[in-house]
Design brief:
It is a single chain. By secondary structure, the protein is of the alpha+beta class. It is 26% helix and 25% strand. The protein has one domain: Sortase, Chain: A (Beta Barrel), CATH 2.40.260. An eight-stranded mixed β-barrel has the order 1-2-3-4-7-8-6-5.
């Protein structure tokens, strides 16, 4: 019976193939683990870190303003009947509100870039985050803050107080603004006052380049049926949509309904 002869060259080639397959498998497993770690970092750790940073930012502002608590601020602004339409000063305004409006409207000094100077409070979403000047990713948004578009209005002033925030990762403060409904309150707290806006309308999807939504009288240039035609006191919230993409923008608008001195 003839015996099969195994040549050393064939044996070495087989061994090299075995080692190559094993090495390739190890590399694939390593790459998979690294990708999982990156996903976990983006979806969990950046949220944890940014939310904690935003919480500390709110507390720092409250200390700066001479306050010792956070959660119940601004609740009085929803009690009683709201002021008349803030597009024009009316007799229903109290003397304190008239002084507040006069001071806000004639104070042109913009906040320092990237510095937190207000607190955004949305009770329906259990959201309470700092507002900083600018919409830079590293300097503002990735901290879990909400960013104010430079050149748009300021809280309580005539025009459009326009804000941006992440919808996913880095604290994702605007993840659920699509759940806001007409009449929901959005409060903006500053050193001197608390301004309460009521959600008025939502533009579910528009182009990321739709600058019309940020104008003093906000109106979409992509979908002109969405927006306003007369001056007023507006707030605009913008974020990316659909989730985990940045292709389009989701926009929520509100109108100023009351203000009170701090």
């Amino acid at each position: 019976m003839r015996q099969r002869i195994m040549h050393h060259g064939a044996r070495r080639r087989r061994e090299r193939r075995r080692r190559a397959v094993w090495t390739g498998g190890e590399l694939l497993v390593t790459v998979g683990v690294v990708l999982l770690l990156l996903v976990a970092h983006q979806l969990w750790w950046t949220n944890h870190e940014a939310k904690e940073g935003a919480r500390r930012g709110v507390e720092a502002l409250e200390r700066e303003w001479g306050r010792d608590g956070g959660g119940d601020s601004g609740t009085d602004s929803d009690s009683g009947s709201p002021s008349s339409d803030r597009e024009s000063a009316g007799p229903s305004e109290s003397p304190a509100e008239r002084r507040l409006r006069s001071t806000a409207d004639r104070n042109p000094t913009p906040p320092d870039l990237s510095r937190a100077y207000a607190v955004l409070d949305i009770p329906r979403l259990h959201l309470r985050v700092p507002v900083a000047e600018g919409v830079g990713r590293q300097s503002v948004l990735n901290k879990g803050y909400v960013g104010h578009y430079p050149g748009t209005g300021q809280p309580g002033r005539a025009g459009n107080f326009a804000l941006a925030g992440h919808r996913n990762t880095h604290g994702e403060p605007f993840r659920y603004i699509n759940r806001l409904e007409p009449g929901d309150t959005v409060r903006v707290e500053t050193r001197s006052a608390v301004y309460t806006y009521a959600v008025d309308r939502t533009l579910r999807q528009t182009s990321a380049r739709d600058s019309g939504v940020l104008r003093p009288v906000p109106r979409s240039t992509v979908r002109p049926s969405y927006g306003y035609t007369a001056p007023g006191y507006f707030i605009t919230l913008t974020t990316c949509t659909p989730e985990y993409t940045s292709r389009y923008r989701l926009v929520v608008w509100g109108r100023l309904v009351s203000m009170r001195p701090r």
